[in-house]
Every structure is written in structure tokens, then in C-alpha cells.
Amino acid sequence: MVYIIVFLPLLGSVLSGFFGRYIGSKSSEIITCLCVSISACLSLLIFYKVIYHDYTNHVIIAKWIESGTLNVNWSIYVDPLSALMLVVVTLISAIVHIYSVGYMSHDPHKPRFMSYLSLFTFAMLMLVTADNFIQLFFGWEGVGVCSYLLIGFWFKKNTANSAAIKAFLVNRVGDFGLALGIFLIFYFFGTVNYIDVFEAIKTIENKDIVFLGLNFNAINTICVLLFIGAMGKSAQIFLHTWLPDAMEGPTPVSALIHAATMVTAGVFLVVRCSPVYEYSPLALTLITIVGMTTALFAASIALVQNDIKKIIAYSTCSQLGYMFFATGVGAYNVAMFHLFTHAFFKALLFLGSGSVIHAMNNEQDINFMGGIKSKLPYTYTYMIIGTLALTGFPLLSGFYSKDAIIEFAFLKGSYVGYFAAFIGVMTAFLTSIYSWRLIFKTFHGKYNNNQINFDKVHESPPTMLLPLIILTIGAIFAGYLFKDLLISESSSIEFWKSSIFYLEPLSNEHPPLWFLLTTPLLVIISIPLSYVLFLKNTNITKYLAETNKPLYTFLKNKWFFDEFYEYILIKPCKSAGHLFWKKIDNLFIDRFGPDGISLLIKKFSQKAVKFQSGYIYQYAFIMLLGFSVFLTILIIK
Amino acid sequence: MNFPILSSLILLPFIGSLFIFFIRATEKNYTAKYVALFITTANLILSLYLWVIFDKNISAFQFIEEKNWLLGIINYKVGIDGISILFVLLTTFITPICIISVNSTIKYRIKDFLIAILLMESLMIGVFCSLDLVIFYLFFEGGLIPMFLIIGIWGGDRRVYSAFKFFLYTLLGSVLMLVAIISIYWITGTTDVEQLYEIGIAENYQNLLWLAFFSSFAVKTPMWPVHTWLPDAHVEAPTAGSVLLAAILLKMAGYGFIRFSIGLFPLASAYFAPLVFVLSIIAIIYTSLVALMQDDMKKLIAYSSVAHMGFVTLGIFTMTQQGIEGSIFQMISHGLISAALFLCVGVLYERKHTRLINNYGGIVSIMPRYSVVFMIFTLGAVGLPGTTGFIGEFLILIGAFKKNFLVAILASIGVILSAAYMLWLYRRVIFGEITNINLKGMLDLKRSESIILYSIAILTLLFGFYPDPLFKTISFSVSNFIENYNQNLAISIVSK
């Protein structure tokens, strides 16, 4: 059964990719949707078996690399953690497949699009079902490529192409860290299989590596390197710049890859490696700091963006930050729970915004929308529910997962924990503000678009609304239904078992009541607040923007990260390349190397030619000269 | 004595070239082409058969043939082990592909061109099979001549300059190697590689001899800073020439490093390994940056070859199982992928007669199939898991990590850079709107082009997902090789 789950999407991808031209776009849609849906159903079945029958499975498909002591297999490894990921990946993927049928209906390259989506699903499944780090790396890079292909799907758009390359390269920087982490793991453990590594972790607890004369603790180094990989994939601060740009791709792609599945791979990696991370308090602290910084920083940028998808993209960044600081404070299961609920409501928001964009003829700027709720009643409703879930409105899914993260951070008891909890609350408030800003500016107020006639704005077809309904159900109930299973006090015994490792059990206490109430209160207050700010009295925001001009520009330009990288990385690389090529290769090596030598020989032979003048007296003179020199030497000796 | 299979492999193309020499030149030269194709395919099949009957579970040389030549001073001795057989296979696989590609790329003196390619094949197989230093040298240097002619006769505008640059560089290095071979004969009284492995060469000679061999191999690899002939040679060479050059000629040096530099002079190799590391690292980063700035497609790929070969030399001198196996794998992989990339450039060049990146753009809308295969090879060059490129690089880096963290980390930066220049190239050529109206009406891959590109693509993916057949072939020989190396090192330490 696990074979079918993993390989059916690949089959769909191959059929639709290579034979799409012959079987037509209709049949390739049906094939890919069917393949992924079947694998989603089977995943749910597996998940059910995992919950009630303690199902685990470890299949070795084939040998991959065998070199000396390095043994790597293609494998499928199903434990509670990967079963949960299987559900998230295949379910969201199936929904997005169906949605794409409607969304991409006018696109001539639909088979190619469906093929990429399925291929992505396959790569993601290989990632989550790996039993070793190298197969994980395969999936890791595989999803990167699919993301590259899908971001650049509209290949005529120059911005899309640049965004695609940027996504791949920034991810490569992360992968560089991940790869080094894997090398170190192999160096210390002589194996890359999870089980063996996790078992042997204690043996290297006190080992150091010496690099450039400095001593580093082995476990800390491994953890930090792996985390760099996770930062790249999950768009954490410093390596986040690709994610907002990636919104150039079609919206279903943003929902599937850049919200629900691929970007959460980093969180998955850290949770998967919990047996290693538990021995590295330093790395965990680093993760907490990076996570909360990202959460706050991305939310601050989202406040002032105008592109509907970019707002949601920054929101994703911010939510991923939450997941990371959950892992950082040791609450791995809560991170996974937030990953699970987030997949639903974030995919919902993306697909909802896709529906808006579809209706508005590819307009993405929320300043040119407004008042369209009467035209898009269904989309409006779903988006509201998605927003409520995202902001953590009581009883919706985000409420359970996000508040749990903040609580665990608080319960951690350390300074970092308190600080993280504080940032978490702040960010929750900001999240709520920017989300409602999006809703109010898009759906309420006056219609602001001169390009498109208001009457032409239309609700989306059923193939697009049906997926939204499923996601809406998920966004409402996923938190309530699964909270006991995934994050209750007994969850680690009943569900997670050995897939998540805790050095010390998580705290069972409850935070004080005032703290529990803070977040929901802020979230609820923010609704009327943003109503006033963005709808009733827009002068206040204008006034704020004008009085705090530097801050506003700073946020508007996304903290100037892109410009910074352009200046310190891209330009120097290009000029170095130019210098090496023109100056060193051409002017130095060639000039003194081959060209120099041939010139020298030429000059020398020109000189030598003069000896052969053809005049007897010159030859005779030279002979005489040579003879006398020879004689002189003999005599002196 | 058994059927002399290795000699047949070497002689078959040679006989074929004689045959073609006597065929009357017609306008289309169909007969000559079919003869060449037939001969090379026969050779491919023969070498596959050789692979099947090759015993993968022993590390010694197999299929040894020995003939006295020139009054017993020079021995004709050939034989293969797990390391060399893959290179023989690579040669016999790439040559028919070159022959097929001739169809669309060479316009004049086709007969002579075919002769040159067949002679090349003979000499290359000779290089990988020879077990005697003298005949190795003959084959190794003999390979220069057809290549020199291929560049000089069928090349582009600056072909004469490039051909001479190529010749000058490579010959200069080889002269020293010849001197070294002669001195080995003086020191030990034999040039038989197997015997030399056994008796070893005294420690005090090793460093000098190693340097002499190194000067030849470094130029051929090419390593920084003697790499500047390669971009020029590639740019001027016709497609088939570039393919041979990138896929096989460069591999002779990598093979030479393993078989001779380390095999004959283990102590010197250990002594000089840091030097090789430094040069390899420079090659990887430096040439990647240079590749980033190129506006000529062929030059870009040529520079990327230098970077990829930098990985190879790095891996070889880690002297670890993963490093050396990775290097061999990387050479095979680079042989396939760079050959395919040059063929891809050739496809465009043949249609529009320009290699400048700026003249293209938006190809995907008119040549979709071409874009797909080009994408596969681009990803292969980037070292994506699932292609052969990944396995080679990954193993090399693992090997390097065991030796020196800094070296491995610096080399890993090359992996980021390779993604940058390859994807940027792909984007500028394939994606975007068609800005150059001349491009409209370009035809997608022809049948012959599809056959060769698809077949390489299939191999790239096949061995990327299931490289086991290759690893099985080399693992015994490599582990035995490393054992010998370590023994030699241990003995020398004890004696001190």
C-alpha cells in the first residue's frame, strides 16, 4: 500500500508529462487528479491504522549508493510522524490538483502543469518517508526543483524566471548547510540511516571538531548545519527572500508548495532529528531566536504590503517562525500540530485569494480591489473563516495550535522562553491586524478598479469552490478534533511513540489564566481596530505612515534584504568572475603562458634566422670566433 | 590463448578507418558514415560483452595480453581492472554518438573527419587498457594528433590559434612525462605497470617523477592555472570534437592520476596531496565564477568542465574509498552530461550559427522537446539527486570531508555556484519571450538528434537512481587500490 501512495503521483506525473500531448489535457487532468486522490485516500487509511493499530512500516525498495562504508537505500519508512506528513501532503496536493483544473482552465500548458504538481508530490513523499538523510536530501532537492519549475511556469514572464532562479539558489545555500550536516553525520557515525544515527548519538556527546584552530562541539555543529538547511527551505530570516518572490508562480502552486507542504519540510527535518536536537541546547536556543525573529519580522512586513499573495506569503513566513520556536522550546509535537492546522487554513487563504485573482482577471494589488464581497459570496465566507483560523480566533483550528505554542514557550521558564512567548503574543496581534487589513481592503469598502468592470467580477467555478469547502472544514475542525491526539499530555505515548524524542518530558503545568486570555483578547480586539484603521478612518494609517516615514519605507522595502544581498553577494561574485576571466585568465595566464612562450620562440627564431645570412665570410668569421674561444678555454684549463 | 578482446577493441576502429580511407568520397558520404557507425556500434557491443564477462569480484587485472615488440625493450601489454573498464565503456558509448552527430554538424571533408574520430577511439581505448608505460605514452600522446586536426581543420574562425594553443600546452606537459618514463626504466629496469606496482619505486625518486607525470596530467585535466587552452579549444572545435574532448580526452588525465600518479608514487602523492587540493579548490570556485560571466554558451560549459574536473582531482587525492569511487563516477557522469550539453549547444548552433547566449531566448515555445532534454542535462550538471552528477559530487565531498573540513566546505560552495551559472544559462536561452525574430521557425529536435540526446538522458537518470552496476564494477578494484596505497605509506613510516 505504501508503494502505491508514493509512486502513484510519479506515475501520474510521467503519464501527463511525457504523454500529455497524445492523451490530451482533459485526460491528463483526470489521471493526475485520480492518482493523487487515491494516494490521499490511502494515506488517510494509513493514518487511521497508525492511530488505532500502531501501524508502522519500513520497506526497502532498492539499493541506491554503496561505496565503502556508505550504504544508502531507497526506502519507505512510515511512523507516526511521517504518517501525519503523508496525510498533509497528499490531502492538500489532491485538493490543489482539483482546484488547478479550474484555475488553469485557460492555460495551454495544462498537462505540463499537472505533471509538475504530481512530480512535486512524489518528491515530497520521498522526503517524508525517507529512512536516511541522503534520501531526505533527494526529496529536499527534488521539491526544490519542482518549486523552481512551477514558479517559473509562466516562462514568458521575466519576473517569474528570476524568482524561480532566486528560489533555487537561496535554497541551495540552505542545502549547502544541510549537506555539510550530513557529511558530518557520516563522519562521526559512519552511517546516514536515521535509526543508527539516533541510537549512537550519545557516543559523540563530548566529541569536538577542530576547524580553523577552533573547537566546536560535534552535536551542536551538526544541529546548526541541519538547521541552516531548514532555514533555507522554510524561509526563515536571512534565507527568506525567495518566498515572497515565489508568488510569481500560479496560485495553486503557492498554496501547495509555498504554504502547506514544501516550506514545512524544514520543520519536519528538525522534528525528525529531535533525538539529535535534544542533546544540543545551544541549537535549540538558536532555533527559538531565529523562529521568533522571523515570526515578528515577517508579520511587520506583511502589515504594509499591497500584493494580496505577498501578504499571505509573509504570513506563511511568520507562521513557520512559530513552528520553529515551538521546536526550539522542545514542543516538537506542538510544532507538528501547528504545521498540520496551518496547512489547511493557509492553503485555504491562498486558494481563496486565487479565486479573487481569478475573478479580478489577474489583478493582485489590494488597493485596486474593494467591495467585491457581494460578487464573491462563497469566496468571501471561506476567506473569513480562513482568516479567523489563522489569527487564532477561539475554537477555530489556529487557536488550538498557535496558543499552544505560545503557552509552551511560556512554560519553558527560561528567559528565552518568556521572551519568545512575549514575541509570540505580539506577532499574533500583528497577524490579526494584517489579515483583517487584507479582508477589509479586498472585500469591503468601495470598488477601486477602473480597469475591470465591476459587473465582470465573477464567482469561481465549482471545481475551485469544492476544494475551498474541504479546506474550510479542515480550517474549522482540524484543531479541535486532533488536539487531543497530537498535543495532549499523553500524546507522546499514545500517538507519537518513538518518532519524537524528549530528553525531559514536556511540562504538564498550565500557564496562569491572565496569560491564556491575552492572545484571544488581542485577536478579538484587533477586528474592530482594523475595521476602523483600514475602512472607516483611513486617515489614521496615512498619518501614521507619514509621521514614521523611515520605518514605513523600511518595512515597505522588506527590511532591505534584497538590496543588501545584491550589494554584498551578487555584485562581488559577478565582478570577481569578470576579473578572473578578463584579467587573470586572459591577461596573465595566457600572456605569460602559451602566448608568451610562442612569442618568445618566434622572436628567438627571428634572431636565429639572421645567422643564416648566406655570406661565406660571416660563417667563416663565426667559425673562427668559436674556434678561438674553444682554444682559449682549453689553454686556461 | 583466449580471444584477444582488448586488442580487438583497440584495432577495430583502426581497421575501420583504413577501410573508410579507401572508400571513394562521394557528396553525401553515406557509405563512409554507415561503415563508421557500424564499426563503432560493433565496438560498443563488444565492450558491453566485455563488461558482462568481466569478473567483478576480483581486483586484479583481467584479459591481459602481452606481446614483445622492438626486441623486447618495449612490451605491448594490455589489461583492464574495475577502474579502467568503465572508461572503455564510456569511450565506446560516446564515439557512435559523435558519428551520428556528424550528420548535421560537419559540412566538408566528412570522410577525413570520420577517420579522425575512429583513430581517436582506437587511441583512447588504448590509453585506458595499456599496462605498460611506453605504450601508454604512445596512446596518450597519439590522441593529441587527431584532436589537433579536428580543431585545426573543422574548427571555427580562430581554429589555428586554438589548435596550436592546445598542442603547445599538452605537449609541453607530456615531454616531462616522457623523461620520467625513461628514468623509471633506468631506475627499475621495467616499464610494466603490474611489475612496477609490485616492486615499487624508491622513495627519493618519487617526488620528481610525480611532478613530471603531474605536469602532463594537470594540463590535460585541466587544472588551474593551466586550463586556458580548454575554453578556446572547445569554442573552436566542431560539436563532435567538443564532445570527444570533454567526454573522453579530459578523463585520460583523471584516469592517469589514479593509475599512475597514486599507483606508482604513493608517497609522493601523499606528500603533494595538499597542493592538488589547493589547485582543485581554486579551479572549482574560480572557474565557476568565470563561467557565471560568460556570454558564449560553449565557453560557459567549457569553464564548468574545469570546475567539475576540479571535483575529480579533489576526490582522487582524498585517497578514500568514497573519494576515489566518487571521482570515477563523476568522470563517467561528466562524460555523459558535458557531452550532452555540447550536443545541445551544437543543436542550436547548427540552426542559427551563433553561440552567443544573448541571441537566444524563448526557445521553449518553439522547441519544447529540446527544452526538456536540455533541462535534464542542466539539472545533471547542477548535481541534482537522481542524476549521475549528484552521486559523484556527493561522494567526493564525503571523501574530502574525511580528510579536511575546510577543503570540503570550500568545494561545497562550488555546488551553489554551479546552480547559479547553469540555471542562469538555461533561463537566458530557453525561457522568456522570443526577442530575436530570426529564431522563429526553428525546428525541434530531428530524429538523429533525439536518439542521441534521449539515450544519454536515459543513462544519466538510470545511473542516477540505480548506480549499483557501476559501483559493483569498481568497488573491488578501488578498495584493493587503497589498501595498497595505505600499505605503502605504512611501510615507509616504519622504515623511517
How many angstroms does the end-to-end distance of chain A come to?
Answer: 97 Å
Structural class based on helices, strands and sheet pairing of chain B: mainly alpha
Structural class of chain A: mainly alpha
Query: What is the total number of structural domains of chain B?
Result: 1
Q: What letter string, H or E per element, gives the SSE order of chain A?
A: HEEHHHHHEEHHHHHHHHHHHHHHHHHHH
Roughly what fraction of the amino acids of chain B lie in strands? under 5%
Report the span from N to C terminus of chain B.
Answer: 45 Å
Helix content of chain A: over 70%
- In spatial order, strands of the major sheet of chain B run 1-2
Continuous helix count of chain A: 25
Largest sheet of chain B: 2 strands, antiparallel
Largest sheet, strands/sense/barrel of chain A: 2 strands, antiparallel
Low-confidence stretches of chain B: none
